[in-house]
Amino acid sequence: MLTVCDLTVSVGPETAPVDIVAGVSFGLAKGEILGLVGESGCGKSMTSLAVMGLLPQPGPRVRAGRVLLEGCDVTQLQPWQRVEAGHGRMAMIFQEPMTSLNPVRRIGDQIAEAVRVHEGISGAAALVRARELLELVRMPDPKMQLSAYPHQLSGGQRQRVMIAIALACRPQVLVADEPTTALDVTIQVQILGLLRELCNRLDMAILFITHDMGVIAELADRVAVMYAGQIVETASVDALFGAPRHHYTRGLMDCMPSRNSGARRLPTISGQPPLPGSVAAGCVFALRCAAVRDECRVATPPRLEASQGHEVLCAFPLAGGELP
């Protein structure tokens, strides 16, 4: 459905670019949910904006790589060109619905606008379709909510509206950028369940971006772990949580509280992710890795296949998920 090949996003002048996303590659199959996980500032949202063609201008730009949707490279197309070329089959759910919805327009009009743009139907027919979309995302009393304003809805209801807008063009690929971050735990569970149901029902692929490993374990089929603009580990959910091979992935898991944590202090990963362009050579995680060696500071780590479908960007990966 979607193939991202060596995607590099840069800032700064052409003569001295600074890469904030460096050589990212992944694929999405029909009906699959891929979780993209990592700390804040690791390049997850920038990757999603580059895939969608929504990088702020002037500012970051796609310097290299390809984003293939239905076999067509869309990195060189403007948003309006994507619509004209029929590439509206990729949609996005943003992190905070209250800042994404227009506060002075009714919910029905905002959903209908997306329908009219992508399907070219009349206003009345678009409103009918808007009601159907609200029913699809299980909005309570969808007919009445068409005339509501965003401030009259709860956080969970606003996120359902955002999902309805994203589904308006019948996407084959849905990009969800931390859609449950601002929601309480109960509503979060409902939204995650809704996304899984829609994925199965509509047979679409979802790229789900989060920093929450617990959400990934519950929702995703495969996981790509991102650090400092690079994908450092990719595996199925079972393989990753059963035996993480990258030291950063293991550190993220150790930071998670569990029923067995008790009153003990949770371990943390010391330091902060490096600033873009500050790592001249070697592994980007070397400054924070508990198992760093001299070679890690000078040589670019290889991308190894730990097992079928399980890749890790590390010269000295973990064995069986245990720290040496």
TrEMBL record:
Annotated function: Involved in beta-(1-->2)glucan export. Transmembrane domains (TMD) form a pore in the inner membrane and the ATP-binding domain (NBD) is responsible for energy generation.
Protein localization: Cell inner membrane
MF terms in GO: ATP binding; ATP hydrolysis activity
Membrane topology: Peripheral membrane protein
Pfam family, one: oligo_HPY
Protein name stated in the entry: Peptide ABC transporter ATP-binding protein
GO cellular component, one term: plasma membrane
GO biological process: peptide transport; transmembrane transport
Keyword annotations of the record: ATP-binding, Cell membrane, Membrane, Nucleotide-binding, Transport
PANTHER family: DIPEPTIDE TRANSPORT ATP-BINDING PROTEIN DPPD, OLIGOPEPTIDE TRANSPORT ATP-BINDING PROTEIN APPD
Domain ABC transporter intervals: 2-253
